[in-house]
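Reposting from the mailing list since nobody answered there.

I have sequence plus structure tokens for a pair of proteins and want to know whether others read the tokens the same way I do. The first protein:
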Amino acid sequence: MHAGTTTIDIHCHTAGIGAGGSGCFVSPALRGSWRYRVYLRAFNVSEQELRNEGDGLIMRRISERLSRSRLVDAAVVLAMDGVVGDNGRLDRSVTEVYIPNGFVARETSGYQNLLFGASVNPYRGDALARLDQVVAAGAVLLKWLPSIQHIDPADTRLIPFYLRLRDLGLPLLTHTGNEESFTRARNELGDPERLRLPLSLGVVVIAAHAASNGRNGGESNFRRFLRLCSEFPNLYADVSAITQANRIGHLHRLLRHGELHDRLLYGTDMPLLTTGIASPWFHAHLLSPARLVRILKNRNPWDRDVEMKRSLGLPLPVFSRATALLRMPDTHEVDHANP
């Protein structure tokens, strides 16, 4: 990453099918779903290309596309740990997507504009050691998707994990709200109220998507998120996915709460930006015709996203806040051991 970076997309996905020895896999159920074909197109790859060139091709395509952005300097590319069984080991039979830390750490180390976002399921028998390893490998944050990884953030057995996370200074980016990108999900685990435990222990938590959909405990997840924000100054949120068709109006609701503006960080949820689900047309009623045309003419997905979110009122400081919150490595040349 070059010096002087100010805008970082903290929420960018990658994927893989195990090609080139990546260690990635996608479950048979997901590969048989229509979603799999959509994701391949969104990543601008074919399955045959991955078989020929390896899963690292996706990372190269992300970096190349991002390098053509005028407005975004770097992206945090996210690993994805799987479901862990009672024996403390990965359970492939119920894991839909697995993207190892080692693969993401090695690949991101080769690109100036990509940063390593780690993922460690805290139920792993060696979870604390894995945390130390990903930090040594240059991780800037830790990513969870509880409803898919079957992680209960409120589980008191996770206290030692949270304390290590806090002491390492590694922010926890965790999905809040319902999850609709997989074939099944335990959406009760995306309840923001379940984050009360790590927040009370001093962990910096970033609520992915700002709890923009779903309900728990008889109220909206967003209301539950707002209550937590009033209690914990270490709770933040990213603005990834909140302009998508299935979350129309949420950015406006979020921005009505001026007290939250200093808690927001820029993210995209790439590659979903390229599927059409976040088209500027969904917000045409809020944009002048000239501004809408200008956004539509922008072919780079990051630049289009930034321009649209700016036009919808997202404050400029949101786009440059990540560097102060992430665990930024002193240099991008770090030891990428295979955790």
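The second protein, same order (residues first, tokens after):
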Amino acid sequence: MINSTTSPYRILVVEDNLGDFTLIEEFIIERVDFPKIEHANSFKEAETLLAKPENIYHIILLDLSLPDKNGENLIHEIIALSRHTPVVVLTGFSDFEFGVKSLSMGVSDYLLKEDLNANGLYKSLIYSAERQKISNKLKESEKQVRSFANQLNNALEEERAHIAREIHDEFGQQLAGLKMSLSALRKLKNSPEAQEEFINSLVEEVNNSIEMVRRIANELRPVLIDKLGLPIALEWLVKEFAKKTGMSSEVNVVDTPLVLDKIVEINIFRICQEALTNIAKHAQATEIKLDIACIENTWHFKVSDNGIGIPNSLNNSISMGLLNMKERSYLIGATLIITNNLPSGTIIEITVNPND
């Protein structure tokens, strides 16, 4: 039985036949504790009730033959006004094809009045409400997926633009400089000492170009992960971050071999990278700390800072940075916990068991 003692179970019955309404009301009262039943004799009355923002119903029971509207047109109008409230059609006509069609129009259930009883109506109320909850969750999930896909595409485009700028502005300029230097070198063929000095400067420019290519490649795919493992790659990440931001840093790594799948490693690296990016953008921190430990085959990665914590505007499911971390954690079967450690900063914890 539906218990509505704390929050009344509100039902709108749209029915012009007083006898049918009385019977429906009795069936509802038989199975629902203290329901709040409201009655509309016509579509116009139902429209007036549904238009009021304060009128939020758990279910709408709709007769298909009203004096001012009926059939498909009535269903379309009520669905449009329902604000995602489940609509159960009650009818005296046993038209199977129309019943199936009404379900495709958004109706939650289709009940024949001649077969109606308390148990059948109660089941329809429960099933319709649960289906609506599931449907709402699916719609919200789809909305989040679309939002994430859109933001991810934007992030990829921004990253491509960033790499293109670095290649064009820095690497391109270095290559142009090398070209001019080589042209100038031709003019120094009669001065061995000047040639030697020029060649040394060319070697330095080439070394700078090589270093830049390595840096760009490392941003795309950290080589340290493949060569030296995740802990050293994360230690390098934190130190580079501290160098760029001027923050002080501390890294504590358990001296234990780390055995993780490469996909897991790269995702953990990216989560930590995203955490550091959020710290730089929003935390107003002066100190960062990374702790890596293994307890009973479960690896723990903790990034913490001494900043102001996560702003409320970011602490939601569609914030790009947080959503990105959550999605990566989900993909590798890791647990992600983000805690505002007020009044001093944020703690981001990732736990993963290679054997799970």
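Reply #1 (J.P.):
I read it the same way you do. The chain is about 55% helix and 20% strand.
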